[in-house]
Amino acid sequence: MKNSVYYFLSILILGIFAFAPAASAGNYGVDKPVTMTWVAGGVGGGWYVQAGGIARMIAESEPNLILKVVPGGGVVNPVRVSKGKDDIGWGITFVDKMALKGLAPVYKKPNPDVRSLGGIFGIYHIHVLGAADQGVTDMQQLADMVKAGKKIRVAAPMKGTSDLPLMNTILGFYGISLDDIKKAGGKVFHAVYSDMVNLYKDKHVDFVFTHLGLPGAAVTEMTVSRDSSLISLSDACLDHLSNELGTLSRDTGRSFIPKGTYKGQDMDIPTVVSAGELIINKDVPDNVAYAIIKIICDKKEELYKINPANKNFLPETGWKNVALPLHPGAVTYYKEAGVMP
Question: Do 249 and 150 fall into the same domain?
Fold first, then answer.
């Protein structure tokens, strides 16, 4: 009798497993294992950790997608992805646009094979800070000072960084350059942000050009040390940078530094804002690109828990806020989701 019962139970259990659906973390259309590399930032840094968290989320949702995070940086990432050395990576909109076009002095030739999956993954604001005793509140006033031959002293980003050509493009829109400042008898100090703080606090410079997330620790320290004014940029300048370099357009509602961000700032300050985007090589199969962005959008709440910067990503507008052409797989997803015309 016991043997009959055991036999019956065995058949029952086998039947249950035979007719149960195969275990699956999600149906994302990747039927064969795919291993890819994701070029991020320095090991242990914000970008590196952020990518690692998203890579784990993707693997848990689609076990056939394995993403290995490798170190990189904003300037090299679009080059590596375009050349196929890495499959996907973090990018910054204006840097990616310069890489795609091969704009000097950062790039010597175009990088045509890099595409985007979506944005925004973090935002970064141009800060033009001036000592209050200079009486400058908008960039046109600063440009007029230089054109009139007045000596001004500024701290600017280091040569060789992506921030410097961004700042040069802004100055060029107003008809001036760092060389013009020097020709007028002024001084230009190329410095890292920590050194900028000391230059400003010690009154070696009266104006500082930076590109930071909010609130920028360096700017906070500078505004505490001296009475200061954030210098606004015109709508025309914001539109020019958006068209030329892919910085965020004004219709995103993000192109300003909100009032109260820094000491003594009692109004919103219009400025150029760049954004982080997820970039990918154009030859990554469409179904793989589709799966990656679909998982990211499907798991939005989990994505936001990984890193606060991810909260800037909204699936409804992810296709809009990019500087590069979208990968066809991403286009298919956004259109199927009904968010892209």
Answer: yes
